[in-house]
Amino acid sequence: MLTFARWTLAAFALLGVYGNSPALGQAYPSRTITIVVPLAAGTGMDVIARMYAEKLSLSLGKPVIIENKPGASLMLAATAVAGAPADGHTLLISTSSAMAINPVLFKKINYDPEKDFAVVSWYLKSPFILVVNPALPIKSVPELIKYAKGSKTPLNYSSPGPGVAQHLSIEFMKQRFELDMNHIPYRSTPQSILDISTGEVHLGFAEAGASLPLIRDGRLRALAVSALTRLPALPDVPPFAEASGAADFEAVSWHMLFAPAKTPREIVQKLHEEMKRIMSDKEMQSRMALLGLIPLDPPSLAETDRYLKSEREKWGALVKKLGLEGSQ
User: Fold this and answer.
1) Are strands 117-126 and 90-94 parallel, antiparallel or unpaired?
2) All residues at 6 or more sequence positions from 325 whose CB lies less than 8 Å from its CB, including other chains
3) Residues ≥6 apart with Cβ < 8 Å to 141
4) Which residue in 26, 138, 256, 275 is a FRET match for 55, CA 20 to 30 A apart?
5) What per-residue confidence (pLDDT) applies to 205?
6) Is the Cβ–Cβ distance between 59 and 229 less than 8 Å?
7) Which residues pair with 222 in a beta bridge?
8) Where are the alpha helices (DSSP H) in 178-207?
9) 114-143 pLDDT per residue, tens
10) CB 220 within 8 A of CB 197
11) 221/85 same-domain check
C-alpha cells in the first residue's frame, strides 16, 4: 500500500500531467476561432455560417471568423482542416458531397472523412426540389412516374455534373421506381436549372435557393421536395416520400460543423451545446427557412454519427452501383 506521503506525491504528479493539458488546464477558447467554409462568400452556407459565428463569438468571448476556401469539389477546405491543430480553434463546415460521396467518387482524396474529423453539430438539411418544365403534362410525382414509363423516348434530366448530389438524387429515384431517363450533365448549377425552364431538358432535382425564383415566376413546376419534411419556403409542395408512397425516400445534402478528430471531447461537447442553443433560436431558424433550407434542432453527437454513417453507406453504394467509383 502507498503511504500517505507517497500517495500525495503521486496525486500531485498526476495533476502535473493533466494540469498542462490544453483541454483541462486552459480556458477554451484562448484565441480567435476560424470556421473554414468550402464555398464562396455570399452563398447560403456562408450567410448562415456568418450568422452563427457572430453568436458564437458573443457566447465564447473570443472572435469567431469565417475563412472561405472553395475549390476541389469542397475538398480543399476539408484537407486544410484535417491537418489543423486539434484544439478547437479551427473548424470546418462540410456536406454530403465531401464527407459521403467524394471518398468513393474520387480516385484519391487528401483526407479521411471517418478518421480525420469529429462532428460538432448537424444543424440543417439542404433539400432539392423536383422540378419539371411547365409545358409537360405532369403535375404530380405519380403523373411523372406514369409519364416516364409510358414515354417512347426516355426523359432527360440535368445536374451540375456526374456524381454530384443532384445527379445521385435522380438516380436514386430512377432505381427506386425503375425509370429510364437520360442524364445531361452541366458545368454549373444555374444553367442546369435554367435549361429546364426553357425546355432544353425535362426535369431535375434542383437546389432550392437557385430554383425558387423560377418556381415563383411559373417558369418551373415544383412536384416534390427531396426531404422527409416540407420546405418552409414551399409549404404546399409535398415531400417526395409522401407524394410517391415511398415512405423512407430522402435525398438531401446537409450542413455539419466538424473539428479535427483529436480535438478534446470536452471542447467538442462545449461547441455542440453552444450550437444547439444558437440553432434552436427562432430567428436563426427563420433565416435558414427563408434561404430554402430546413433548420434542425441539432441532434445529439451519437445520433449525428449514426446518421453520417448511414449517409456514407447510402451514397457510397449508389456511386459504386452506377460504375462511378474512382471515376474522378
Assistant:
1) unpaired
2) 104, 105, 319
3) 130, 223, 224, 238, 240, 243, 244
4) 26
5) 96
6) no
7) 131
8) 189-197
9) 999 999 999 999 999 999 999 999 999 999
10) yes
11) no
What are the grid coordinates assigned to 258, written together?
466538424
Identify the CA nearest to 257 among candidates 311, 198, 299, 204: 299
| Total domain count, the chain | 2
* Residue 305 phi, psi dihedral angles, 5° rounding: -60, -40
Peptide bond into 134 cis (omega under 30): no
Position 26 confidence tier, pLDDT thresholds 50, 70, 90: low
In what helix (H) or strand (E) does residue 66 lie, and over which residues does it extend?
strand 64-68
- Distance of alpha carbon 47 from alpha carbon 293, whole angstroms: 12
220: domain CATH number?
3.40.190.10
- pLDDT score recorded for residue 328: 93
Name the β-bridge partners of 295.
124
pLDDT at 188: 87
Residues 122 and 132 in one domain: no
Q: Angle CA(109)–CA(110)–CA(111) in degrees, nearest 5?
A: 100
Alpha-carbon distances, residue 167 vs 114, 131, 161, 172, 180 (angstroms) = 24, 13, 7, 9, 14
What are the strands of the beta sheet with 221-225, ordered from one edge? 181-185, 155-159, 203-207, 128-132, 221-225
Residue 263: phi and psi, rounded to 5, are -60, 130
Average pLDDT over residues 258-268: 97
Task: Note the Cα 250 to chain centre separation in Å.
Answer: 13
Mean pLDDT, all residues of the chain? 91
Assigned domain for 23 exists:
no
Q: Is residue 3 part of a domain?
A: no
Model confidence pLDDT, tens digit, residues 60-119: 999 999 999 999 999 999 999 999 999 999 999 999 999 999 999 999 999 999 999 999
- Is 207 within 8 Å of 215 (Cβ atoms)? no
Domain containing residue 45: 30-126+253-321
**Do residues 191 and 291 share a domain?**
no
Question: Can you list the alpha helix ranges (DSSP code H) found in the chain?
Answer: 4-19, 22-25, 44-60, 75-82, 96, 102-105, 141-150, 165-177, 189-197, 208-216, 240-244, 265-279, 282-290, 301-321
